[in-house]
């Protein structure tokens, strides 16, 4: 037999506050309204976000592209600092810019937040950041969900995820099929750590005994401020670059989990070899600091962090200078990173690792050689 509870058990007493969820929606409404496009049908609060796809019907062979992701353990930094208005840029960057890799224009996005306790102001700050990032990227935020999970997550804990959809004309799809012998690799600078490798970063600073409020002269700000620097959004600059008549882009790669070599290898065809020269750039101070603090081996560091390179493009040598110029005009530093050759003709250094394909992709080969210049 079971005993009767002394007092009635309600959803609220079980830890879920529906009224707090409603208040959070009210607080986020204005920021979400700005993250829109003319094609959006309906408003906030529907069971599904709706998007008018009439323009797609006029394309010759429209290819839909979709992506989903989160921001990993970077949320732990936001929670520790009680600063939640930038993590949305990390989410949008991780999701939307993956779609740009194939040359697609991202159209709309949805988000999902799971938390131990809905604090309306905190949820509104997170969604406000997502909305501002969508606005900057030209993507409509058409819906989302906030779920309260008491007992599974602590009251101050949360995680975020999102999904987006874009479209590209089939004839304009970028990827390994376009890459040619003699192409060059152009780097587009990151804004910092972005949203990958934070399990390593957090372990290093914990081991070193550093606190997030520690001022670091090399950063010109506190450690926490440096770690929470939002992921750079490449969407509009790269779409403009791709559309430029003076740039024939063959492939793009978003440098996220796995690092530079692995992500570049994913967009090269088998039989092609890319040689990347470390001497072409100096990683920003945060990467050097993490490596020194944790005595992190070079190979492990490069497999985990972006090292200052957030995106790479593969294109004909004759078009590289124009691509770099356009990127610089958009505010993103760019430089020539390396070259692509047929592997059968490539000079492969015997003392450096060769990365072949990644994440299930039977792609090309990449070797990173040389040493970074001293700061």
TrEMBL record:
<keyword id="KW-0547">Nucleotide-binding</keyword>
<dbReference type="GO" id="GO:0004641">
    <property type="term" value="F:phosphoribosylformylglycinamidine cyclo-ligase activity"/>
</dbReference>
<dbReference type="InterPro" id="IPR016188">
    <property type="entry name" value="PurM-like_N"/>
</dbReference>
<dbReference type="Pfam" id="PF02769">
    <property type="entry name" value="AIRS_C"/>
</dbReference>
<dbReference type="GO" id="GO:0006189">
    <property type="term" value="P:'de novo' IMP biosynthetic process"/>
</dbReference>
<dbReference type="Pfam" id="PF00586">
    <property type="entry name" value="AIRS"/>
</dbReference>
<comment type="pathway">
    <text>Purine metabolism; IMP biosynthesis via de novo pathway; 5-amino-1-(5-phospho-D-ribosyl)imidazole from N(2)-formyl-N(1)-(5-phospho-D-ribosyl)glycinamide: step 2/2.</text>
</comment>
<keyword id="KW-0658">Purine biosynthesis</keyword>
<comment type="similarity">
    <text>Belongs to the AIR synthase family.</text>
</comment>
<dbReference type="InterPro" id="IPR036676">
    <property type="entry name" value="PurM-like_C_sf"/>
</dbReference>
<keyword id="KW-0067">ATP-binding</keyword>
<dbReference type="GO" id="GO:0004637">
    <property type="term" value="F:phosphoribosylamine-glycine ligase activity"/>
</dbReference>
<dbReference type="GO" id="GO:0046084">
    <property type="term" value="P:adenine biosynthetic process"/>
</dbReference>
<dbReference type="InterPro" id="IPR036921">
    <property type="entry name" value="PurM-like_N_sf"/>
</dbReference>
<feature type="domain" description="PurM-like C-terminal">
    <location>
        <begin position="180"/>
        <end position="348"/>
    </location>
</feature>
<dbReference type="GO" id="GO:0005524">
    <property type="term" value="F:ATP binding"/>
</dbReference>
<protein>
    <recommendedName>
        <fullName>Phosphoribosylformylglycinamidine cyclo-ligase</fullName>
        <ecNumber>6.3.3.1</ecNumber>
    </recommendedName>
</protein>
<dbReference type="GO" id="GO:0005829">
    <property type="term" value="C:cytosol"/>
</dbReference>
<keyword id="KW-0436">Ligase</keyword>
<feature type="domain" description="PurM-like N-terminal">
    <location>
        <begin position="58"/>
        <end position="168"/>
    </location>
</feature>
<dbReference type="InterPro" id="IPR010918">
    <property type="entry name" value="PurM-like_C_dom"/>
</dbReference>
<keyword id="KW-0963">Cytoplasm</keyword>
<dbReference type="InterPro" id="IPR004733">
    <property type="entry name" value="PurM_cligase"/>
</dbReference>
